[in-house]
Amino acid sequence: MSAHTPREPSHLRSALQPREPRRPRRIAHFDLDSFFVAVERALDPSLIGKPVLVGHAGARGVVASASYEARKFGCHSAQPMAQALRLCPQAVVVMSGHDVYGKYSRQFHDILNQTSPVVESVGVDEAYVDLTGTGPEVGGAYAAAQDVRRRVREELGLVVSACIAGSRTVAKVGSDRAKPDGLLEVPVGQDAAFLAPLPIRDLPLVGPRLGEALQAVGVRTIGDAADLDARWLAAQFGKAGEALAQHARGIDHTPVRAGGREHRQISRENTFGQDVTEVEELRRVLQQHADRVGGDLRRQGRRARTVSIKVRWSDFTTLSRSRTLDRPVQATAAIVETARDLLDEVVRTEGLRPVRLLGVAVSNLVEDQVQLSLDDLGSGVAGATAADGSARPRVLRDEELDRAIDGLRARFGDRSVTRGL
Ligand SMILES: [Mg+2]
To answer: Is 126 a catalytic residue?
Structure first.
């Protein structure tokens, strides 16, 4: 071998060096214990130990949250306040308001954001945090989570429970198990074993209907579901069955996405002062909501693939319908059109009952890029003209109108421009 053995260029050499083994995923789910009640007690310690109902006391008030002491009497969230007070007349009714809860929620998220760069908020009081990068040199994920719990207690006077595991699903199941005031870590590789003895309904994706269907075929625990053939589950329950086969075995590769809920859905809803039974009125309100939602999308430079509506009947049954579109939309007109279709579908399949609450949401958000397909250009390309004599594609005209209205509202206020039906 000559003295001048050619050496690999430096970039190749570094690529050839053995890689550091990949660290196992460590995902934490943090969930504040009885958030609304806890905030009220942090503000007024005389409420500690008493039955507390958070919500508006008025005739149409609804319980947003009930303390453990009140739950013993049968009170629970989403219950009409009047009914809760009949069950537990000695309960204290409080409602500090969204500004106050929002402030606590932001402080909670600030602490999480100082712990890891990858925090995904999934509600005012819960978030996923990727702690994979929190290596042993700083005590690892467990020490990081303990530190969050200590800070939340000291700085906010609230209690947060948490679980660290190999995936979001397992961390979420575990944080429920950790309550009250607990921290659980599922050791690396033990996710499936941890889940196996737990009731099937503990899995977030198993709602009441799927739960019943699974019970009917003898599935009681998550382990029972893990023992079933994945193809059989998929054949029986479609997409939910496919996901169930994975989750029951502790497999869930869904990443924690920095940012979280505020980026994933935009919605508007209202509770009517009096239940509404007129379809025309519902359509009018849908349009207002869709208009606001569209305005938010345009301000954020985003488009949405999925449009949903939410309807709550006077008996509190709540249903939602959604539709995923071929192309992401941003124009108010497109959101209104889909929302109205969905409302028609509800009326057709469920009949029309007195409506208490109505909402519109968009999700599946993508960054704004004008994506015109040949459909949009349609008649324009063919050289024909639209009904109003213009050859412009309809989507473009809708968006120009939206831009003009958004501009006026930015200058003269939200109520300066109202759209016709
Ligand atoms: Mg909570």
So the answer is: yes
